[in-house]
Amino acid sequence: MSYKEIKPTGILSNFVQSFWYYETSETAVNHTILPDGYFDLIVEFENQALSKVKLTGIWTTPKNIQIHKNTTFFAIRFKLLALEYFFKTEIKSILDTTQNLPLSFWNIDSFTFDEFEKFTTVVSENLNSEISRFNAIDSRKLKLFEFVYQHQLKTVSEISTQIFWSSRQINRYFNSQFGIPLKEFLKIVRCNATYQEISNGNLKPQNDFFDQAHFIKEIKKYTGATPKELHKNKNDRFLQLSTREEK
């Protein structure tokens, strides 16, 4: 398998976590996709031909998938703020599942399987152009997701106090747009933040967990595996814990 990521820069980084590329060789592979606090636009090529474009909801449980041989993916891993501004819809209806989109969505059918860098450049330019046309970006939501993804604040009440937006209103927003309360989402993001350390062999609880037992319980709830099983990552089962190339 081959995997790489390209990180966005500037204001686009408020909406996009990364552009990522993945390909299989002559052998099909099995993976378990772990909840990470993002949603993805995924472009799939089978035997070098565009076969599918889909949007994922937020994953709240691990998902086992099989990827066929000779398959290539281009994808955009979006932060939740992107939903309202680029897609202008909700994704609560596809929580823990996916929705197929037309192959022509965002002119994706104009790219070939070997044009990931071009895809990244063109889509980045288009998204930045769209951002420049926004009348305004809601400052409360901008700060909300900044706090969430950067782990600056740990609870809903702390975030509510800092952005002057009531906990009740925040949860109404999360439930209507994403299908889960913010408290649950914070737990998913907290677990995702440990994956790299677990991959590196750090199996001790982080400051965000009460103790070792709480750490193991939370990790197992969202991944279906113990930290030790995640670290072993037999046969690259957990793609998010496998070695990555970043640009």
Automatic annotation (TrEMBL):
Domain called HTH araC/xylS-type: residue spans: 139-233
Pfam family, one: DUF6597
Cross-referenced InterPro entries: DUF6597 (IPR046532), HTH_AraC (IPR018060)
PROSITE patterns for the chain: HTH_ARAC_FAMILY_2
UniProt name for this protein: DUF6597 domain-containing transcriptional factor
